[in-house]
């Protein structure tokens, strides 16, 4: 039985080997007919030929420098320069317009007539009523001096008469110094009634900008009770940047445009140039007096200011024609068609896109006005700057 199983297994293995051989032979026949190289390296010649550049009728070598780099030129010329300064400014009260109203003795506020900030008051209008024990004592002293003076008027003793008169006049002046009016003093003499409170009247017309007292407040001698300003003429404080300071002077005309009234241009004149600098913002204050007859302008308003300053005629070039590295300033003049050479120049003032040329070129010379970085690189490659420096050093030795 065991021998029979072994023979059957050998038979199966033989059939499997036979079938495998037949399949392998069929595969090799197909492989011989396929061209592997054609499959891997075949090129799409139609697409390749379509991407090739077409021949041109004008070779690149025939183009000029101007056509290649688009270099335009300009002439050194004389031009009337007008410096235009644009800056900002704020409105403020004139220092001479602000008035502090004070009381010259200690006391307490019993009545407050001007009771809110921003109220307009007229000269002579009552502001506050103050009770002061010192004021009561001063009035009683004045009445005694007045009575004593009346008694001594007819005496033959000139010394007593003079003493009484001096005492009366001193007490009278004391009340005047405390802002008690002559009318109030005369009324005191007639009635002999001491008033415990004193009404303080406004000595000026204007708006109450600040109020420092309230009903019942204690008043100290010399401390302000109110701050009043008139607003009739205002100061416009213009901020001038450091680079523009040399151009600004007193008497120059300016155009002013307030954000609140963008359609109106106010005219002004520089009244004063302050001698101090703002270290933080690097600006200097310039003052312009603005008339405010219609009271439309209010302190704190923001405005834009334009100052146009004629600074005369000068030899100039556009800023695009100058290479300014800080240490050197170079222009490229056109020696002949398509050929440019570098020249050192000395620059003066810069005004609205133009450099003033102090030396290095002459009026009428043609210089490059664009593509300066290409010309600069070309000059460095050819050693043009070195030759220029050598010529300059030889000229100095001579």
TrEMBL record:
GO molecular function: transition metal ion binding; transmembrane transporter activity
NCBIfam families: RND_mfp
Protein name: Cu(I)/Ag(I) efflux system membrane fusion protein
Pfam families: Beta-barrel_RND_2, BSH_CusB, CzcB_C
Family: Belongs to the membrane fusion protein (MFP) (TC 8.A.1) family.
Residue span, CusB-like barrel-sandwich hybrid domain: 104-229
SUPFAM superfamilies cross-referenced by the UniProt entry: HlyD-like secretion proteins
GO biological process, one term: plasma membrane copper ion transport
Transmembrane segments: 7-28
Keywords: Membrane, Transmembrane, Transmembrane helix, Transport
